[in-house]
Predict the structure.
Amino acid sequence: MIRRITVALLGGVAIVWYAGHWWGVPAGVAVAYGVDRWLKRQEPAEAREARTRAEADLPLAADLLAAALRAGAPVDRAVAAVAEALGGPLADRLDRVARSLRLGADPPEAWSHLDGIAGAGRLIAAAVRSSSSGGALSGACTRLADDLRADRAISAEAAARRAGVLIVLPLGLCFLPAFLLAGLAPVVIAVLGDVL
């Protein structure tokens, strides 16, 4: 918080200093307020790292949960075993799910500890549906793990394609002026020299 306020104040002071007039004060205050609001909305680095690690661990957790359920473990013990095997931020959330289930919480309430993780909504829906209908959760977990891996592969391929397109832009910005100066400028000068 102190860092955020310091950065906002430095931004405001820089605007006032750069303006050098009385009207720079309201502009500096507006910039400081805007920077503070913008920095408040940014996700902290620790939270972003925990979220991305949990999203990366979710397919493995679904596979482990399916294996534990196929081995005959009850849902609460299977979730606790997966949490113990994984470690990390997803394991903490799974441990809370296991404790909630063990203490008798309703499945939607217990599985809600996984909210906020991309892809976990399907696991939550499958677990709640399984608890109310009695259907096997292991098959849904296996399909979910396969779907999450496929989604990750598709997003990685899209990022690679996007990187290829973005690489062309600086290259074009470098070669276009060179082409204009080395290719077109002599032709235009020669034509203008003949005409004039």
Notes: Residues 2-42 form one domain.
